[in-house]
Each structure stands twice: as structure tokens, then as C-alpha cells.
Amino acid sequence: MARVLLSVLLIAGVVACAQPEPPPPPPAPERVEAPALGIAIAALPSSFRVVANEGADLRLAPTDERDGEIAVAVTEPDRINLVQQVRDHETELSARPGGAYGGQNELRGPLGSAYYSRGQYDADDGSRLEEIRLFALHPLGDRGLVMTYTYPAAEDTKVRLEEFVVDLFGEIEQIQMVEEGGAESESP
Length: 188
Description:
Elements (H helix, E strand, L loop, with lengths): L1 H17 L13 E3 L4 E3 L6 E7 L2 E6 L6 E6 L7 H14 L4 E10 L2 E11 L5 E10 L6 E9 L4 H12 L3 E3 L14
Antiparallel strand pairs: 1-2, 2-10, 3-4, 4-5, 5-9, 6-7, 7-8, 8-9
């Protein structure tokens, strides 16, 4: 009987040791700070990577095989009329070769009310591009934040819109702005 019990314990020990180790946890999302813009992306969604982050130039691109680029900009205090910015974007898209405005929508995010506007146009090389532009108040509240996602027109607009508006925009937060010459501006 003791021999059987010892055999069972040995087999149980071998089986327990043979279990694969659980996979390591995924790496923590990258925090991206753009001091010249006064913003940070608290947790960069895994669907995007940084292609430029120097001074006021912050650009992102998809991490997969899809083409496209997101440019982030801050507007001057006199350009924070979000509704007018949407109208201006409609005019701009419609004036481009093959321009077709696709509409706009209001949304609520961590920065309050925001709008996105989208449409398509023909690029100089003849390819068809789609553009989604998001307009929001800057986290400091004294200027506008504009994020423009341009990519080849395709059937995945809904996916890209969700990645851009829900996943990425939801991660924008305020950091201390660094002015030209290195001085920090005061947060309200």
C-alpha cells in the first residue's frame, strides 16, 4: 500500500511539474509625453506606434500592416470654436480633388465635448484617401487640440474610427507645457 501511495505521489509531482508556466503578462502600455503640445497619451493603444515626437511634431501610425498616420496639433486660443472647425474641415475636404464629406459627430471624452469630422479625397498620386479629424478642447482649456488621421480609403473605416476616437482619444491627458526657450507654462 505504501508503495502505491508513493507511486501516486511521484506521478502527481511529475504531472504538476510538467504543467507549462503561464505566459508572462503583456508589457505595460507606453506613456507618450509631448511637452511642447502640453499633452500625454497615458497608455498608447497597442494598435499605434510613435513615428515622430519632437517639439510640436507628434505623429503616430498603425502598428500592423495598414498604412496611415495621425498628426496631433494644438491650435491658438482664437481657434477653439469646435463647431466652426468642423465646418472649416467640411469646406476643406469638399474643395480637394474628388472631395466627399462624410459627416461629423459630437462625442464626450475625458476632455469634455469633442467632434470628429470625416471624408474622402483623391491624393496627388491618384489614390483615394480618407481623413478623420477630431476637434477637442486642450486639457489646459485655453486652446484647441486637433488630431488628424489620414489613411488609404478602405472598408475598415469603422475599426479605424473606434481605434482613433475611443482607444486613442480616451488616453489624452494634460502635462505641463514647455514653451519655446524651455520655460514651463502654468496649468490652471
